[in-house]
């Protein structure tokens, strides 16, 4: 299938699909005329990429882990025990938890400013 068909099948724009290719996440076959040729495996790969992005993983980590995920018999994404996968996931979870903590601290500081501003106003 061509890139437009993959875009329709996945709900992902052509531009984003090209970005995934630039990042090494998708590897379509190039036809002699230069067109990209995708198959059903690419549909699943895009679904997996979107799920991993939604989990907060950067594309550099997704590129390393994408081959470790597949669909089970119910069509749900599951991870295989690939070397380094757990350490990558744990590291990314720590990074996200740290970011949440920083945001909560910022939110508390803003709440304090709002409270003191409202009391004066």
TrEMBL record:
PROSITE patterns: HTH_MERR_1, HTH_MERR_2. Keywords: DNA-binding, Repressor, Transcription, Transcription regulation. The keyword Transcription applies. It comes from the Bacteria. Residues 1-68 form the HTH merR-type domain. The keyword Transcription applies. InterPro entries: DNA-bd_dom_put_sf, MerR-type_HTH_dom, MerR_fam. PANTHER family: MERR-FAMILY TRANSCRIPTIONAL REGULATOR, REDOX-CYCLING DRUG-SENSING TRANSCRIPTIONAL ACTIVATOR SOXR. This is MerR family transcriptional regulator. It comes from Nonomuraea bangladeshensis.
């Amino acid at each position: 299938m061509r890139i437009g068909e993959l875009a329709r099948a996945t709900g992902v724009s052509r531009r984003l699909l090209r970005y995934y290719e630039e990042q090494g996440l998708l590897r379509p076959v190039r036809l002699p005329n230069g067109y990209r040729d995708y198959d059903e495996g690419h549909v699943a790969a895009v679904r997996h990429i979107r799920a991993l992005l939604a989990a907060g993983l950067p594309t550099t980590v997704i590129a390393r882990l994408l081959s470790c995920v597949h669909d089970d018999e119910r069509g749900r994404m599951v991870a295989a025990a690939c070397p380094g996968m757990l350490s990558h996931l744990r590291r990314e979870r720590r990074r996200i938890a740290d970011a949440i903590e920083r945001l909560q601290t910022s939110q508390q500081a803003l709440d304090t400013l709002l409270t003191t501003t409202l009391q004066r106003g």
